[in-house]
Amino acid sequence: MTETADDLSAPLGQHKPRRKRLRLPFTFMQALAVPLGLFLVTFAGFAIFNKDPLGGEPMTRIAIREPKATEDKPAPAASGHGHESKHETREAPRQAAPGDQKTVTIIDGSSGARHDVVIGAGDEAGDKGAASAPPPVMAGIDQKLLEKSRYGMIPVVADGVKPFNVYAADADRAKAAKMPVVAIVIGGLGVGAAKTTDAIMKLPPAVTLAFTPYGSDPGKLAERARAQRHEIFLQIPMEPYDFPDNDPGPQTLLTSLSQDQNLDRLYWHLSRMQGYAGITNFMGARFVATDAAMQPIIREAAKRGLGFFDDGSSPRSIASQAAAGQSLPFGKGDIALDAVPTPAEIDRALNKLESVARERGVAVGTASALPVSIERIGAWIKTLGDRGILLAPLTTAMLKSRSS
Hints:
nine-stranded parallel sheet, two-stranded antiparallel sheet, 14 helices, 34% helix
């Protein structure tokens, strides 16, 4: 029997058993490699056999909830339009559209100015619920001329009554039939409260105001415009040739989308405010030049009793041809008054507009709400009557063009 040094030095009668070391059949690295390998095999199998076509793409899931409409007390009618509603005002359902609570850059089609706008989101956390809701039905709106869409209330013809006729501004149609008529449309409103308010308050009621669907509360500014007896049009963002480098904003109508997709986007825009007599393009040189894209929009405008105004920015536009087969009022811009936004050039464009009106009987000028534009147009309008030219709302000019 062999004895070790430990055995010889241990006290008599106290045998100390030898400790045995536990030896594993694999190393620590081998133990770590096994679960890692199983994970990789599982992941590879999921990637190969998963049928999700959006696998790997970033996704956002939005819970769409539609609360019940609430009833308020009847609202007073806006002055100047002569169409008081006897119906109760109902709050439109919440908009749950793609692009909700999103910051976008809006490009003014005339001046090129850029504005960052928050769509459907409040400035403070405590105001998110109210700001993300759609604008309530505006004062003086005929409830019979609205129907519910999944985004909110949109125009509709009721008992043969059309929004174009109800929301057209008052005008002396008999006088317009005998005199050269000039209409002026100020566009790009609703983005920037200061410039929108200047256009509303500094220009006479016969000037038509066109609002974009963007901004935290476009309906509020549109309601103020109607209270000052301006008629309003709604600008529909449409695809320009250099899209997406030049992007009109969320829910832009695109030539690459199907008819149903573009109509769905159109409904989103139509629900942003009420009380407009018609719609007009916001940018959209490619879209208005594409027959397959424009035809459904023109048909929908006619179906809902609206007019359509082509701002004249695209020489290839087929809007007039598309409108010819539909029973809707149509108009087209003749001159962009502030394409060069200097006093001298604006005055020159206004004089040209007057010449076109004398030659054709009716002419339509378009402009943005730049301070210089509002100042020069306002000064020109004050002397217009002395020169035998009638300033009339866009709807009056459209009806005169249709009858001539």
